[in-house]
Specification:
The chain is an alpha+beta fold. Helices cover 51% and strands 18% of the residues.
Length: 448
């Protein structure tokens, strides 16, 4: 069973064209054949008219009047004579007849001259049929040649008629996952309007559900942040209270849980804020990528020193991109936070900012264990922490980075660093670079 609409239309039109063409060809052949026979009968009448007026005379042996047509003029005399066939012909009335002459079927016109002598203009029916068949076939040639042309035109018309549908499907495929704007109806065929209206209704319902989900996540995270902050303050106050060793261990575990919950709520709020911003926002301000990175590094440097990790820049150049400064800060902070969590004590985390053609390239490299190859395809999914999760991360940091980078028109790539003397993870973020950025910026050695 053919499921393709294009295939169904083409087969349907092909069937109609072939059947109609075949029926037309049969009738055309029959009409052309009969017309050719009538023309040859008219030729016999003209020859007989000349013979009757004395313009043509036949004497034995009977000469051929027309070599190709094999038309012969037979003189039958004034009285029956000669062979039995000649006698039978003499007995026929004047006019067109089909009879046998010298062992073959002939079409002949019998007539009588003013002097009473009779004659016959004869032509073999086989020759007449061959001539008529040739003329009829020549008449069919335009129809036979037209049918392939009609099939080609039908294919072109079908393809052109379905082009708006294919263009609409291409536009839907090219959209980002969070682009739920309605499809335009103007300029589309009226047959597609019910389909487009149904899709727009589905997009509107999906957008409504997604907005509800975002509001719920943001409201829940916001409402939970206040009691979590209060609990964190209470655990901080317990430090000044004289407690036993067991109680202090339990308080430390409680504080660690509070910190993890607080970090999760902050990530959920950041995720909700980023999803609320339309992708490709036209009024997006500009921000200095190097400045945002320096501010984040300054904030995280004390924590890195406490863990004995060398955090710093291997290369930094002044570059400007179109983004909210807070969005850039979130990207850099999440990348560095993940790198610091994965890097063991005594390790190193390097950040590079440089120009790569028309993009601003941000790279973060650590000396941790990297990511398992089986987890690489899913590591950017929300709440996915890998097959061997470490630390108190929520699995949202890289997912938030991916969403922000895509909304800024960039892309992100993760790759493990392998070598005989080192390991780690390299995260490369590419963002569209503004034209007024430094042209003399250095070129990064890594990336994709």
């Amino acid at each position: 069973m053919i499921r393709s609409l294009r295939g169904r239309l083409f087969i349907g039109l092909t069937t109609v064209i072939v059947v109609a063409g075949s029926i037309g060809a049969v009738f055309t052949y029959k009409w052309a054949f009969d017309e050719a026979i009538e023309i040859q009968d008219s030729a016999l009448i003209e020859i007989a008219s000349l013979a009757q007026n004395g313009a043509l005379n036949a004497s034995p042996p009977v000469p051929e009047i027309e070599e190709n047509a094999q038309v012969r003029l037979i003189d039958l005399g004034k009285t029956p004579r000669g062979t039995p066939e000649e006698r039978r012909l003499f007995a026929l009335k004047d006019g067109l007849h089909t009879a046998n002459w010298k062992g073959q079927s002939v079409r002949m016109l019998l007539g009588t001259r003013p002097d009473g002598s009779r004659y016959a203009a004869a032509q073999p029916t086989a020759v007449r049929d061959d001539t008529a068949d040739d003329m009829a076939l020549r008449t069919l040639l335009p129809i036979v040649a037209l049918m392939p042309c009609l099939l080609l035109v039908a294919a072109l018309v079908i393809g052109r008629s379905l082009r708006p549908m294919l263009r609409l499907a291409g536009e839907l495929d090219a959209r980002s996952a969070d682009d739920l704007t309605a499809l335009p109806i103007a300029g589309t065929p009226t047959e597609l309007h019910p389909f487009i209206i149904s899709i727009n209704g589905l997009l509107a319902r999906t957008r409504y559900l997604m907005d509800q989900q975002r509001r719920f996540v943001a409201d829940a995270a916001h409402e939970l942040r206040t009691p979590i902050t209060a609990l964190s303050l209470q655990t901080e106050n317990l430090k000044s209270v004289a407690l036993s060793k067991v109680a202090r261990e339990r308080v430390a575990a409680l504080k660690q849980g509070m910190d993890r919950t607080k970090h999760l709520l902050e990530q959920l709020l950041a995720l909700a804020r980023q999803e609320a911003i339309p992708a490709g926002h036209a009024d997006m301000p500009v921000a200095e990528l190097d400045r945002a990175a320096k501010e984040v590094v300054a904030d995280l440097l004390p924590a890195a020193n406490d863990r004995g990790i060398d955090l710093g820049f291997s290369l930094v150049e002044p570059l400007t991109v179109r983004s909210e400064p807070t969005m850039l800060g979130t990207v850099i902070r999440n990348l560095l936070d993940n790198a610091l969590r994965a890097t063991p004590r005594g390790g190193k985390v390097d950040i590079s900012i440089c120009r790569a053609d028309d993009t601003a390239l941000l790279q973060v490299e650590d000396t941790g264990p990297g990511i398992a190859s089986s987890d690489m395809d899913r590591i950017l999914e929300p709440f996915f922490r890998g097959s061997s999760p470490e630390g108190d991360g929520a699995g949202l940091g890289l997912s938030i980075v991916k969403r922000i980078v895509e909304r800024l028109g960039g892309r992100i790539k993760l790759e493990n660093i392998t070598g005989h003397d080192r390991s780690g993870l390299r995260v490369t973020v590419r963002l569209p670079l503004l034209a007024n950025s430094s042209v003399a910026a250095a070129i990064c050695t890594g990336g994709d």
